[in-house]
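Chain A, query sequence.
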Amino acid sequence: MSSAKHDRIRDPGAAVTIRVARAEDAAALDRLAILDSQPVPAGLKLCAEVGGELWAAYSVRGRSAIADPFRPSGELVPLLEARAAQLRRASSEVVPRRRWRRAAALLGAA
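Chain A, predicted structure.
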């Protein structure tokens, strides 16, 4: 028997929102952590909401996740992982560009 965490989201039209966690998400994150028997992920977190309710969260740097085991949240963690990977790649690309632009400006090339 599979757990709800690994089932599919039943409503294919359900709105899924991936966003950065905010301070006001603390209580919902604590609830998810308790349900999942895991600590709240540290650092910058992405959240997955379905229908306006927080179902999963993922640490961008720590690469750990929590999810509601009583909802079909199994497909959300891979979405959060993929988005976190995009953000990590983007942040590693931004720093060299900024350094190049600054160096170019100092040399009078910009």
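Confidence is low (pLDDT under 50) at residues 1-7. Residues 76-106 form the longest helix (31 residues).
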